[in-house]
Amino acid sequence: MFDTLQHKGRRKQLLSQLLSKFEFDPRVIEAMNKVPRHMFVDHGLDNLAYLDKPLPIGAKQTISQPYTVAMQTHLLVQKAVKFDKVLEIGTGCAYQTSVLAEMGYRVYSIERQKALYMLAQKNLARLEYHNPLLYFGDGFAGLPKFAPFKGILITCGAPEIPNELLRQLAIGGRMVIPVGTGTQRMVVVDRISEEEYTKSEHGDYKFVPMLSGIEDK
């Protein structure tokens, strides 16, 4: 599968639609314009890749709706800058991972589904994104040996904000996390000091649930 002129045209059209809904940070739009979303989904879904909707990627998981990817990234980049360490929980097919990598972050990403972890590695290699570091494991545990992270982005709906991930957030850093069951509120957590955090909410979304443990089948 290649990134043709037709794909690039459809991608620009999608991003124009997103900008008509919200004034996203130009850095986010630039990165999403460079990442070929159609190469992260099954070839049979190519004609749907540039619609603003989630799509199945296997293991009962989805690639997030482009608007959601843009919004989560937009919220994150208000605090994290190029070369900062960012932790992603829920690698999936690595589309969001690639957007973060395209923006110059040092990305650490955790996936609990073995099949998706392997798919993500394949996708990143094929598109020559060599800098993201992928880990097969439990997202609730984070990656304490690499903490603190200037940004933490969770791509699945958490029942509550995990304390272990809060501890891995750098002072001055930001976490973007959908919280709730069924429908989630997009929550932004800013760490002000060792013990102080502030929270704000940014609309309703619907994500697959954040689950503990691993699936290695």
Q: Helices and strands in order, then pairings?
A:
Blueprint: H1 5-21, H2 26-34, E1 55-58, E2 61-63, H3 66-77, E3 85-89, H4 95-102, E4 106-111, H5 114-126, E5 133-136, E6 149-154, H6 163-167, E7 169-179, E8 184-191, E9 197-205
Parallel strand pairs: 3-4, 3-6, 4-5, 6-7
Antiparallel strand pairs: 1-2, 7-8, 8-9
Structure, explained:
It is a single chain. The chain has helices spanning 5-21, 26-34, 66-77, 95-102, 114-126, 163-167; strands at residues 55-58, 61-63, 85-89, 106-111, 133-136, 149-154, 169-179, 184-191, 197-205. By secondary structure, the protein is α/β, with parallel strands linked by helices. The mean pLDDT is 96. It has one domain: Rossmann fold.
Q: Which features does this protein show?
A:
217 residues, alpha/beta, Rossmann fold, 7-stranded mixed sheet, two-stranded antiparallel sheet, 6 helices, globular
Describe what is shown at a glance.
The chain has about 220 residues and is α/β, with parallel strands linked by helices. The chain has helices at about 5-20, 25-35, 65-75, 95-100, 115-125, 165, and strands spanning about 55-60, 60-65, 85-90, 105-110, 135, 150-155, 170-180, 185-190, 195-205.
Rg of Cα set: 16 Å
The CATH top-level class label: Alpha Beta
Count of extended strands = 9
Globally, the shape reads globular
Q: What is the topology, as strand order, of the major beta sheet?
A: 5-4-3-6-7-8-9
Structural class estimated from helices and strands: alpha/beta
Average pLDDT reading: 96
**What portion of residues is helical?**
25-40%
Main pleated-sheet profile: 7 strands, mixed
